[in-house]
Description:
By secondary structure, the protein is mainly alpha-helical.
Amino acid sequence: xxxxxxxxxxxxxxxxxxxxxxxxxxxxxxxxxxxxxxxxxxxxxxxxxxxxxxxxxxxxxxxxxxxxxxxxxxxxxxxxxxxxxxxxxx
Length: 90
């Protein structure tokens, strides 16, 4: 093996190792965000409920659930319960 092949192989191994670390940290950050949301719930004032109700009226319940999941990193159950609660109040 020549020097170039050895350096290329070492570089590939190092890149794979670093990508693994990055993926693990992203997973840990996502778990911490979920934990934070459970300890510090979303502020649910009248304005927040009104904006959710407006979304339900314009795009429907299922897209609103999807929006809440993506925006606030809620679980499917949490987002669905929030949409149901807002929809029942009106």
